[in-house]
Amino acid sequence: MNLEKLRVERQKWMTWKNIAPLRSVIDNLEELEAKVTLGDVIKIDADLDDDKLLLDAKALMPWRKGPFEIGSTFIDTEWQSNIKYNLLRPHFNLKNKRVADIGCNNGYYMFRMLEDKPKSLVGFDPSPLYKTQFDFINHFVKSDIVYELLGVEHVEFYEEKFDTIFCLGVLYHRSDPVAMLKQLYKGLDKKGEVILDTFYIKGEGEMALCPESSYSKIPNIYFVPTISALKNWCLRAGFESFEVLEISVTESNEQRKTEWIEGQSLEDFLDPNDSTKTVEGYPAPARVYVRLIKDKK
User: Fold this and answer.
1) Is the pLDDT of residue 297 over 70?
2) Closest Cα partner for 94 from 157, 46, 137, 38?
3) Residue 186 belongs to a domain with what CATH number?
């Protein structure tokens, strides 16, 4: 696969009529020094025109992952991504490692990962809007993070192999989950690891829920497995080790409507009379976090 040719083609996405005006926001940002704090909130302190900054940030809506605070502007994102990050944080050490984040959105997790001082950080996400949000934040952070307008299907062809790949909230969007797991496997260096997060359903059997048309109002959810079924998928993809790190139920303090998004959020996706079910009658979203090891030897 010719990734250089693909990069050139996808860079043209930045000229789309709905994206080009947003790119001008980045082009017109002033150059200045900023103090950056990498905590639950990515905080950027600088001598800014706060009124202009607020308008610029609003132009880049919807903001899904975060939160961020730039000067006096608090970007209260739909997801309080610090909850997931802090849940996973005790389970990894990224120092001097080559790290990838698949489906990286606007880069919130990668900005947090800078604290670990990895050797390199590469984000994969084929969304020109999220890339623009990343560039907006990184204009102030000034990190060496590489953001690729590529998907999980390109990881195995990437110019380098990774020690750790994060793949959070992607697997259930793929119609062939085992094929995707194989792509992650091929993107790892020997003894590399994947930190994976996906929806699951309770049950002892090796089975998966196959939503008819949508799950939690999300149309592109194909399979929601039991943990046993997920383990079998991972082993079939070639991984030697499958370790459950955490399980959690998505709650309204983690995902909710704010003024920084458009449309609906978790409260609209659940049965109004029974929050343990989606509006379609399926079990409400719950997540399992696992570590996959390519080769333990």
Assistant:
1) no
2) 38
3) 3.40.50.150
